[in-house]
Amino acid sequence: MKCNNCGNVVPDGSTFCNICGARLSNEMRCPACGSVIPSNSVFCPDCGKSLRHDTPDSETFNTRQQRVAQPAESSWDEPQQQTNTGKSTYNRNLIIGIAVVAAVIVLLLIARACNSSDRNENAVATDSTSLVANDSQDAMVIFNAELSKNRLNTDNSQAAFAIKFPAVGDNPEYILGLTYVSDPTVRSFFKIYKLTQNGSDWVPEKVMERSVNGRSLSFDNNTLLADITQVPRAVRIEDKAYLYFAFMNMPMGGSNGRVSLCLFEPESKQLTTLDYDGPMKRMDDGRQYIYGQPIQSIASIESRFLKQEAQSIKILYIPTEEELRAEEERLAREDSLRAEQQMKTPDNADAYWGANNSENLNSVKNGQEVSVKTESYDKPIFKMENMKKKIESAEYIVFADKSGAVYGFDKNTRKYFVIYKSSGSGASDIGFGSDNSILRMQTSDGHLQYNLKTHSMKTIN
């Protein structure tokens, strides 16, 4: 028995096809008009309605027959073709996605490199020797033993560190160690020793000594807030070996701090130092830092390397350009304020009056009446032995001194003030007008009238 839908041979007595699931009855009802028609009908012979949901109304019976005539091939080939198309689409999308992600990563790396280049266009490439703890400890044990053995610590110095330098080419390995004394009241200093091997023995040699008088020294990484794997260490710059180290040195009784970063080249025995000097400041996180900038120029490759390394010394706070400008403006304002306060002292009363009233005097000479800027003082602003004339009313005392300056004293407020001060010969005579609050002065700037109550001045005939 064959299935009328797919042509599959089905077992006898079956009601449905075991391949396509079609009912095996020879008759069916048209879903459109309800007529009883053969079950293998594609179109209803009564109403013409298509009986296949997957068959378009425009599809003819012949084309349908041609399509259904290859059930075995279409049932296997079409799904395989769909699967291959899906995989191709998936693979293409996957490749595109990977390419996009790779492009984004490359762009980010380029941007990061550009930013890094902008931050430090003179970056110094180094080949830094990473120290293994056992090597560092071993070098320190050897160094301390040789210091004692050769009586090199009789100067009350203590060992700060010792670093092993690996063998390079024909040059054998060696050790560089540093000792120091911190005594700002007498003499602070540090020394660098080079230890080389002679057979099984180590031979120490002092290769450098530096005095830092009047300052206390600390090579402690906890004080520097530095990584012990970075400070101190052996480095190579342009194929030269260097010892890099840093220490803090504080002036005795001073408020400024200093961090000194150093590169020592054992071959030439040259020491390059970059000192960051600045005040100790408590920053926003509550901790104290040295707010510092280098006091030497950044010219050599060694100094540029030390400038890079300064970023890892966390006791240093290196201000930005904006912060430096703001600091300069703040200091300028403070200097100006101090200068102004100094000018307001009784000893500088004449100079302060002259600085504030130079334009007012020009206006007075041009016939204008102006309000003079005055400052009151609790103490005398002149010396009595220099006075050449004194006049007095119920409310005021007015003095003219030998330099030509004129001063007043208010009896009610008990304050002293400058009335007139000229760069010329000054006042030659003074006197009260009809009103004792009006002062008349004969000066090198003309015949002037001064109101002691309103502190206004004008020229009179």
- Total of helices: 7
Which residues form runs of ≥5 with pLDDT under 50?
53-83, 116-121, 126-134
Number-wise, the strands total: 24
Anisotropy-based shape: flat
Radius of gyration: 50 Å
Mean pLDDT over all positions:
82
Strand proportion, as a percent range, falls in 25-35%
Distance between the termini: 145 Å
Biggest sheet details: 9 strands, mixed
Helical fraction: 25-40%
Structural class: alpha+beta
Walk me through what this model shows.
By secondary structure, the protein is of the alpha+beta class. Among the domains are: 129-319, no CATH class; 346-459, Thrombin, subunit H (Beta Barrel). 28% of the residues lie in helices and 31% in strands. It is built from 7 helices and 24 strands. It has helices at residues 61-68, 71-119, 133-149, 221-224, 301-309, 321-343, 349-365, and strands at 27-29, 36-38, 127-129, 158-165, 174-181, 189-198, 201-211, 215-218, 233-237, 240-251, 256-265, 270-282, 288-291, 293-294, 316-317, 370-371, 387-392, 396-401, 406-410, 415-420, 427-432, 438-443, 446-451, 456-459. The strands form 5 sheets. Strands 3, 8, 9, 10, 11, 12, 13, 14 and 15 form a 9-stranded mixed beta sheet that branches. β1 and β2 form a beta hairpin. The longest helix has 49 residues, at 71-119. It is flat and about 150 Å long. The N and C termini lie far apart (145 Å).
